[in-house]
């Protein structure tokens, strides 16, 4: 398979899965097993193209970011609470991610961990959807600080490949009384500092490997643009789906995909 085609396929996988509660990292790991390409060669590529998906959030919600930025200058309390909540929720991932980085990298090479995490995560989503019946918090700025801290720590569970950063964040927010659309959008916005931090860490730790990597900037550019375009479509679709139907469809997908992966990995 040509490197250009691999770049396009991985960009599509990243764009589709980054903001859905199905685990983008897990899908990229399973894709390497399914397609049979050298996962180590494309590991840095997979990290960098995440920025394409993050850029999609900035483009789609530019009015929100503009309003928050201008509100900060005017000392608007809503803008300050919005910004505070994002930064506070990001801190646990930053601290724990730095502390456990080497152990997390070991898990990234275990596709069976991904498969089981997909199944368990799907079951967890179904349970939470059934148990959580009412939501009292509407709007990111309205989430109390204590609950923001809780969401930040729950996001850290996604350091296990296959758990899903967006899934952990959304389900954590739902469990703490945040309504569905706000939970989903909080997950989108929280992805910006979280993924920027993760990408920066990878680039700093592996700058020598980047210079000698076989995957060139052409492939990275193709994957980046592909992830960006696909993520824009997926984010718009996702918000509409969860507002009407909840997260159960994604839970069942996780369970089916995870069981399929477990069977396939066991038979190789």
Automatic annotation (TrEMBL):
It is a multi-pass membrane protein. The keyword Transmembrane helix applies. GO terms for cellular component: plasma membrane. The chain crosses the membrane at residues 39-62, 82-101, 113-132, 144-163, 183-204, 216-239, 251-267. Its EC number is 3.6.1.27. It comes from the Bacteria. InterPro entries: UppP (IPR003824). It catalyses: di-trans,octa-cis-undecaprenyl diphosphate + H2O = di-trans,octa-cis-undecaprenyl phosphate + phosphate + H(+). It is found in: Cell membrane. The keyword Transmembrane applies. It holds the Pfam family BacA. One of its GO terms (molecular function) is undecaprenyl-diphosphatase activity. GO terms for biological process: cell wall organization; peptidoglycan biosynthetic process; regulation of cell shape; response to antibiotic. Keywords: Antibiotic resistance, Cell membrane, Cell shape, Cell wall biogenesis/degradation, Hydrolase, Membrane, Peptidoglycan synthesis, Transmembrane, Transmembrane helix. Belongs to the UppP family. Catalyzes the dephosphorylation of undecaprenyl diphosphate (UPP). Confers resistance to bacitracin. Bacitracin is thought to be involved in the inhibition of peptidoglycan synthesis by sequestering undecaprenyl diphosphate, thereby reducing the pool of lipid carrier available. This is Undecaprenyl-diphosphatase. It comes from Sphingomonas leidyi.
């Amino acid at each position: 398979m040509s490197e250009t085609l691999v770049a396009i396929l991985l960009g599509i996988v990243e764009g589709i899965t980054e903001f859905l509660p199905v685990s983008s990292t897990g899908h990229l790991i399973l894709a390497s097993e399914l397609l049979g390409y050298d996962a180590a060669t494309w590991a840095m590529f997979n990290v960098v193209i995440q920025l394409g998906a993050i850029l999609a959030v900035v483009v789609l919600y530019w009015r929100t970011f503009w309003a928050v930025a201008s509100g900060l200058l005017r000392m608007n309390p809503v803008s300050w609470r919005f910004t505070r909540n994002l930064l506070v929720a990001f801190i646990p991932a930053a601290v724990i991610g730095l502390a456990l980085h080497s152990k997390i990298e070991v898990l990234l090479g275990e596709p069976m961990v991904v498969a089981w995490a997909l199944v368990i995560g799907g079951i967890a989503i179904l349970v939470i959807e059934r148990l959580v019946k009412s939501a009292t918090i509407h709007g990111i700025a309205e989430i109390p600080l204590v609950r923001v801290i809780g969401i930040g720590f729950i996001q850290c569970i996604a350091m296990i490949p296959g758990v899903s950063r967006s899934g952990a964040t959304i389900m954590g927010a739902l469990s703490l009384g945040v309504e569905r659309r706000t939970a989903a959008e909080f997950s989108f916005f929280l992805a910006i500092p979280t993924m920027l931090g993760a990408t920066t860490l990878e680039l700093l730790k592996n700058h020598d490997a980047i210079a000698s990597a076989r995957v060139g900037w052409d492939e990275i550019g193709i994957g980046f643009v592909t992830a960006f375009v696909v993520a824009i479509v997926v984010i718009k679709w996702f918000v509409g789906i969860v507002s009407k139907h909840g997260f159960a469809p994604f839970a069942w997908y996780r369970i089916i995909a995870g069981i399929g992966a477990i069977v396939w990995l066991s038979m190789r």
